[in-house]
């Protein structure tokens, strides 16, 4: 392969790696916020006096826990993508240096 073609691939892979890392950080922040909200709601549940208020908070906790599960799945997928892209990037960098 020509050097220019390899450099273009390397640049593309570097951008994709940066994009995946950015998405992963974003998802981590969303997960931390959701976990924080769950903790706050769990504290509030102890103070709830009415059954409807308690039910509302428990429903919200369940929705947040589902959101956390989805974010965890997304993070796992992003981690797999990141490994693949970094492996490909290393292969192209070794080709480029030869």
UniProtKB/TrEMBL annotation:
Composition skew (Basic and acidic residues), residue ranges: 28-46
Lineage top rank: taxon: Bacteria
Source organism per UniProt: Paenibacillus psychroresistens
Protein name: Uncharacterized protein
Region of interest: Disordered: 28-57
Composition-biased stretches (Polar residues): 47-57
């Amino acid at each position: 392969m020509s050097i220019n073609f390899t450099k273009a691939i390397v640049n593309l892979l570097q951008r994709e790696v940066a994009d995946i890392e950015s998405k992963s950080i974003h998802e981590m922040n969303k997960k931390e916020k959701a976990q924080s909200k769950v903790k706050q709601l769990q504290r509030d549940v102890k103070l709830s006096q009415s059954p409807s208020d308690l039910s509302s908070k428990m429903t919200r906790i369940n929705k947040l826990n589902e959101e956390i599960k989805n974010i965890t799945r997304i993070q796992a997928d992003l981690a797999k993508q990141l490994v693949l892209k970094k492996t490909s990037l290393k292969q192209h960098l070794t080709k480029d240096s030869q």
